[in-house]
Known about the structure:
It contains two helices and four strands. By secondary structure, the protein is of the alpha+beta class. 28% of the residues lie in helices and 12% in strands. It has a domain at 27-55. The chain has helices at 10-21, 60-66, and strands at 29-30, 37-38, 49-50, 53-54.
Amino acid sequence: MAVPKRKTSKARRDKRRSPNMKMTAPGLSICPQCHQPKLPHRVCPNCNYYDGKSVLKDEAPSAQAEA
């Protein structure tokens, strides 16, 4: 069984872990319909539009009809 001969220093350990800490937040674009931030090339979660067309049925009116 392989056992390390010396203790791994904090600097060496942290150098190995550092690439995971360099992740960046995804870029956001502005929806042309409702002007809210959204991920590019995806349906807007606020207005359900993509490429100027309504893609998903709006669920808000059905919720009001039930009440």
